[in-house]
Backbone:
């Protein structure tokens, strides 16, 4: 579509190498990367964690210049060499000619300054002559340009007062305030809900078109790539293993790694093989479950005068050996629902029956023996394992609670469990930080099944993992379900993942279950508007499909 | 805001009540201590002691004695057992010296601690940082009990550089006021300065790893702007908490040793002398005043915190 022709590219990177000296020896984070980027073009660098994609992007504007980094090669911005540039020269370029948008808009703004002030700061860093009032006017103008409603008022908001999508818009407004030629967007939508992601991608596409902005998009998400990129680079272990136009990379990938990456995608538009229907014996029955939280207004408001209903009369049923997928965006109440089901928060009203027995409102002591039958696997395998305990101790604790005596017996049983989740016996004596993300999640699963539970609540168990690892963990969960007859309540924001693991899906929105049904039916023939919106917002990792969808939308 | 302050006031009443009970109880259980005998003096006889008991109310039941003492304390009529001087007046006389000492020392420890902490953080890992680390550790491990007499001996008694003690009111002669306070200020401030420099250094190093600092760099701010506006400013917020508590603690207790060594005649020294005489009313008065300052500064710290960090709301933090 967009040809660079004979004109000089805006950005030209040649044989870029970044090595970090670490205690374990030098790490080649970027190992000979070359590419070009023309004005108005969107180039995506795709890769998994540790592939060097972010380091590449940050090195271009000198953000990786630390004492332990060795940087070689060249990156030219319209003839200006950036790698060899001194810090003062880079400062003039950063923000003014090359701007950057980061993954998490919450942590990427300074929490103690108002958003407007931070934008004004960016403007005044480069235009000394501009007065405060004029800079503020410019900031408001930019907020309007990224479609933030009531920009006049929002300019004085603190970052935490904005929603995730608004924050990322404000971040983009700040990046574009000085009309840069190149925008580096490092996982700009990864921390956002799908419907918000779709809006932000649309915004980036529009800005790219209207301002003839060159965009370097760093992402792990092939769906996002298919939606917005013109050309694609695939990075693996610091090298570019595949490069080409969007269609070339998606429809005729040359490198085995690219093929593996594309193969590991769980596509929402592809139905998984039908699974044999589980026997219909109910394990968990939730009826009209309500969870209210008190909300106070203002500093003098009466406490408890107003309530916030996080879970609003939810009814669910989960059979033995079945997987129920619970899907919803952030703030939909899905985590609160899980905690209310497990009696980790006390339900305000309604009933939760486990194996026919009412457990809502049970005392802590009477709930305790039941807890073993219901286990949780958490989202973040980094945060949910105690960093100061060995893997064997973490898994062994569950065995200890079942009365397995300390010593050889417990060790043998713990190693059996590790073996069962695909870890090696020597992992027994390691610490969590010595394991990869996928291995850590396996430990989380081993810990859960050690209790011989009947129900496992899996709260976003794969959303922190790379796509290739994700597929392995989902396979493991399916295997264990078959072997142990487990029932899963599988919570995720990614309906693509849910479709591939769940028998039935419940869609949650604003505390309510808006639609529930067989997984394929929900995905192929959604009945409710919200479900349709949710499905439509999921980017498809298929460029032709994405173009067809966009054409349909604009028509 | 009003609710928050009301709640804190109620809390203060509780704290003062508990503290006064504890102090009173300690005097009840001290073995072989009889205030009446102490007041009657060395050449007393049983009749005199009995008289004293009656006039001072020591023959009343303990709860009545406690209530009487509280009534006197809060109406400003508490009287020392040993000198029969009015406690409130004594404390009032000592306050200027104590405040002069603590405020001056606080200014020194803040300026010194923050400056050195800033320098150490900016040069982390380099020689300047190493030297400052050693200095800070020496400062932190130098207790006032040791430092104050050492300063007095070497810089005042041996060399005559500074006066050996005493307090000159600010209104009388500002120069002499400061001259007399240089050694006390320094002795009290060194420990805190060392400690604050370490805290600020580690706060700043942690803050430098934040995502928003990377954003600030990506905006094209100079390194100096990044460090002062986005690293230092954020790192100072926890220091405010620390400072409020340390300043109250200095007023309420840490000044005792310094005042006594340099003979500043402040509230701290008054407390020390009263403790030596087992004189309950002044001890009660000074302790209540100290507790009042601790609760007061705690409240001020929380208010400052809510002002400095927009994410914090007073209602939630106080619950």
Residues:
């Amino acid at each position: 579509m967009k040809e660079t022709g004979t004109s000089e590219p805006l950005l030209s990177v040649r044989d870029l190498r970044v090595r970090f000296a670490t205690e374990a020896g030098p790490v080649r984070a970027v190992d000979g990367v070359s590419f070009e980027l023309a004005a108005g073009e969107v180039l995506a660098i795709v890769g998994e964690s540790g592939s060097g994609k972010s380091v590449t992007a940050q090195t271009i504007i000198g953000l990786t210049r630390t004492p332990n980094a060795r940087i070689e090669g060249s990156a030219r911005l319209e003839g200006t060499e950036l790698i060899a540039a001194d810090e003062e020269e880079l400062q003039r370029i950063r923000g003014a000619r090359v701007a950057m948008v980061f993954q998490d808009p919450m942590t990427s703004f300074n929490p103690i300054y108002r958003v407007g002030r931070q934008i004004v700061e960016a403007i005044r860093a480069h235009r000394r002559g501009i007065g405060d009032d004029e800079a503020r006017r410019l900031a408001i103008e930019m907020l309007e340009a990224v479609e933030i409603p009531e920009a006049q008022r929002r300019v004085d908001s603190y970052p935490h007062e904005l929603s995730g999508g608004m924050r990322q818009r404000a971040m983009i407004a700040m990046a574009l305030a000085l009309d840069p030629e190149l925008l580096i967007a490092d996982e700009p939508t990864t921390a956002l809900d799908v419907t918000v992601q779709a809006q932000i991608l649309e915004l980036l596409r529009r800005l790219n078109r209207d301002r003839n902005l060159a965009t370097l998009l760093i992402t792990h998400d092939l769906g996002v790539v298919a939606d917005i990129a013109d050309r694609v680079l695939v990075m693996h272990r610091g090298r570019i293993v595949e490069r080409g136009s969007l269609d070339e990379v998606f429809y005729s990938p040359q490198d085995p790694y690219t093929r593996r990456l594309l193969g590991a995608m769980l596509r929402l538009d592809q139905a998984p093989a039908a699974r044999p229907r589980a026997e219909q014996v109910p394990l968990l029955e939730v009826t009209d479950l309500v969870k209210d939280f008190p909300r106070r207004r203002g500093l003098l408001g009466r406490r408890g005068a107003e309530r916030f209903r996080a879970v609003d009369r939810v009814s669910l049923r989960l059979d033995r050996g079945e997987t129920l997928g619970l899907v919803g965006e952030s703030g939909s109440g899905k985590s609160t629902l899980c905690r209310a089901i497990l009696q980790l928060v006390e339900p305000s009203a309604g009933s939760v029956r486990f194996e026919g027995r009412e457990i809502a409102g049970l005392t802590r002591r009477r709930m305790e023996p039941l807890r073993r039958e219901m286990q949780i696997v958490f989202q973040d395998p980094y945060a949910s394992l105690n960093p100061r305990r060995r893997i064997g101790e973490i898994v062994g604790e569950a065995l200890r609670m079942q009365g397995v005596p300390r010593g050889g017996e417990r060790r043998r049983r713990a190693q059996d469990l590790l073996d069962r989740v695909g870890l090696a016996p020597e992992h027994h004596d390691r610490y969590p930080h010595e394991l990869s993300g996928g291995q850590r999640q396996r430990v989380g699963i081993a810990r859960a099944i050690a209790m011989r539970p009947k129900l496992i609540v899996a709260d976003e168990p794969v959303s922190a993992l790379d796509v290739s690892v994700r597929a392995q963990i989902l396979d493991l969960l399916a295997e264990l379900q078959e072997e142990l007859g487990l029932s899963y309540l599988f919570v995720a924001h990614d309906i693509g993942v849910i479709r591939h693991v769940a028998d039935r899906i419940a869609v949650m929105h604003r505390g309510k279950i808006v639609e529930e049904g067989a997984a394929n039916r929900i995905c192929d023939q959604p009945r409710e508007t919200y479900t349709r919106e949710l499905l439509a917002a999921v980017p498809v990792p298929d460029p032709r499909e994405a173009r067809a969808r966009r054409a349909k939308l604009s028509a | 805001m009003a609710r928050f302050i009301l709640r804190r006031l109620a809390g203060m009443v509780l704290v003062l009540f508990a503290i006064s009970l504890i102090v009173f109880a300690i005097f009840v259980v001290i073995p072989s201590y009889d205030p009446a005998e102490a007041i009657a003096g060395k050449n007393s006889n049983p009749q005199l002691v009995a008289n004293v008991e009656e006039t001072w109310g020591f023959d009343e039941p303990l709860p009545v004695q406690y209530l009487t003492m509280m009534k006197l304390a809060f109406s400003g009529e508490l009287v020392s057992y040993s000198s029969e001087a009015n406690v409130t007046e004594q404390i009032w006389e000592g306050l200027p010296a104590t405040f002069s000492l603590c405020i001056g020392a606080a200014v020194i420890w803040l300026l010194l601690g923050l400056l050195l902490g800033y320098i150490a953080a900016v040069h982390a890992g380099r020689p300047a940082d190493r030297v400052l680390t050693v200095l800070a550790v020496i400062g932190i491990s130098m207790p006032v009990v040791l430092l104050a007499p050492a300063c007095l001996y070497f810089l005042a008694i041996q060399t005559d550089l500074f006066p050996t003690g005493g307090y000159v009111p600010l209104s009388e002669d500002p120069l002499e006021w400061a001259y007399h306070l240089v050694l006390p200020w320094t002795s009290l401030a060194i420990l805190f300065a060392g400690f604050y420099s370490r805290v600020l250094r580690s706060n700043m190093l942690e803050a430098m790893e934040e995502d928003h600092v990377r954003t600030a760099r990506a905006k094209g701010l100079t390194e100096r702007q990044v460090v002062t506006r986005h690293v230092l400013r954020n790192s100072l917020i926890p220091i405010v908490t620390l400072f409020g508590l340390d300043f109250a603690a200095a007023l309420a207790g840490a000044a005792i040793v310094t005042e006594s060594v340099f003979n500043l005649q402040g509230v701290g020294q008054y407390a020390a002398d009263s403790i030596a005489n087992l004189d309950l009313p002044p001890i009660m008065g000074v302790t209540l005043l100290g507790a009042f300052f601790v609760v007061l500064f705690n409240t001020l710290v929380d208010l400052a915190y809510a002002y400095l960090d927009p994410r914090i709301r007073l209602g939630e933090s106080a619950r």
